[in-house]
Specification:
Pfam families: MarR_2, ROK. The chain is built from 13 helices and 12 strands. By secondary structure, the chain is α/β, with parallel strands linked by helices. Helix 1 crosses helix 3, helix 2 packs across helix 3 and helix 4 (about 120-140) crosses helix 5.
Amino acid sequence: MADRTSLERLRAANRRAVLGALLTDGPQSRADLARSTGLSRTTVSSLVQDLIEHGLAVETTDRGRPHKGGSGRPPLLVAATSARGGVAGIDIGHHHVRVAVADRSGVVLAEDVQPVDVDDHGSATLDRATRMVRSLARASGREVADLRGVGLCVPAPIDRRSAQIRSGILPGWHDLVPTDELQERLGIPVAADNDANLGALAELHHGAAHGVGDFVYLKLASGVGAGLVLGGRLYRGATGIAGEIGHVQILEHGRVCRCTNRGCLETEVSVPRLLELLEPAYDETLTVDRVLALEAEGDAGVRRVLGDAGRTVGRALADLCNSINPSLVVVGGPLGSAAPLVEGVRASLDRYAQPATAAAVRVASAALGARAEITGAIAMAIARAALEE
């Protein structure tokens, strides 16, 4: 009985993965679904047939293109049937709350962003997010009760056992369970994840990693984190904190980190640290936008600091790449578009990763920029809403 129950749960999870891929990415062939979910073609075919029989998917009359431009008869596409209601995405950063209401295909219907002092005010931040969801639902012609789910992004790891935010990152959120708090306020299902994971999910479905089964999404912001996608799925680890590359020790006697260790990667390459390093050489208060403008103008000092940061990050990434052998590293966060940073990562991977590993991995800037987290939150809400179908 236990084995049968486990198999039923596995099939249900795989079914949700296929339906979630159709809802977030649109019509696809069975082969595309196998690539995006990491499931075998036989399994996908069986699950698609199940979805069709239950009225959750249909075969379209339009045919897709052969994979990678190959010859032969194009495959039939599978599409999710029209889904009722909408979803909301909430992106909570350290200094802002962004909320969007979207339809079940991911099209944003209404959106707002407000400055908020987040770190020390957990309950007040969730109250603000609740008001924004209600207002935007009305602006999109819906009520909150019409929404089928909410995806919540927070700038800190969430422990999968307790559903609480890891202590020390957001001091004002101690003892809060964000999903329970929001679900009580809104009365609809809420799923939550950290910003690096949802950035990875967004780039997987809509950005630089679309169609890539194994990649690392690196986010450099106020901290440093990584989202890992393996076999087409987010990998969170046993307790939900996989990808915490920012707390790899790179200097034994370095600065004390917010995690209480010394010399963590993020103490050397976080955005605030890079601005701190650059400001003494410039007669102005530097912002991210100003640094990017200086880099675009070819400023030697900015390019050197960003290149050094990329090489430092790349050294830590090389060990990770040796372990999981990804085909892509996506560099995101406020400075992710800076060429010297990306080139520095590439240089360290070539120097420190195993030659075959380095040769297999491509390094690219993220495509979605500041919209990665809200896009990932919406994608998660769409996928989780399939649980209620």
